[in-house]
Amino acid sequence: MSQAILPPQKQMTCMLGHPVAENPIDRMFDAVYAHYGLQWQFWKCDVQSESKIAAAIAGVRDLGFAGACITVPYKVASIPHLDEVDKDVKAIGAVNYMTIKNGRLTGHNNDGKGVVKAIEKITAIKGKRVAMLGAGGAGRAMAVELAWAGASHITLCTRRESQGVEVAQTVTKASGVPAQWQPWAGQITIAKGTEILMNATHLGAAPELELVPVDWQSVNKKMTVVDVITNPRVTPFLKTAREMGCPIVDGVEMLVQLAMQIFQEWTGVHPDEAVFQKAVASALGE
Question: Most exposed residue of 43, 174, 215, 241, measured as fewest CB within 10 angstroms of its CB?
Fold first, then answer.
């Protein structure tokens, strides 16, 4: 176990988003805090509308929180309410957590870093063609990080052309990797040559478990299929892919990878991955 000087005082951390009820992140973090002897707590805060995000972020500061995660749909809208952002947020245009020091809120984004680490446990990214379904705050971060990790091409499939085109331009500007928009209308046909297919939407999350409208005849078993959803671990999307023989990467693995980095930034403790894996499995009742 890594050794560190642990802060003696109690600390609060949180996540701001909507909806947040089904996310296991609070139970995971609380279990890890307890493992390392930290008197810290993690709270899920359901911010009902974008009009309230400024007040929620101000509350994080005024209540003395030690750090906060930011999840959908506020990863872009939160940026103007922070004191500063790091270079990743500047390049990506979205934030997924903040550190708080001396009352100043600094925004960071490691969504994509978690995805890259999770995918590379299963397959190499370098030289691969990626198709991503959805391009919200999390999706745009993942697209940029996949490009930085060596993906050869990114296709972004979204219902809104303006969103897909803007994120494609962001990817190419940040990385030099070609990216393009594909319309999302009816069943989605996955382009030939795609090697990594990712669902970056909320379709498939508990409790609705909605289906992602993919034309599965356009998917072959050599594709690595990825989902960002954390609950359930195996979504309907991943279940179908697994039944086809595709390698799969689940959102829980991504959550573990990015949460470990956030934990270290907040606490100064370098965690053991096995501790996080055990904590999230317990949180999901596995």
Answer: 215
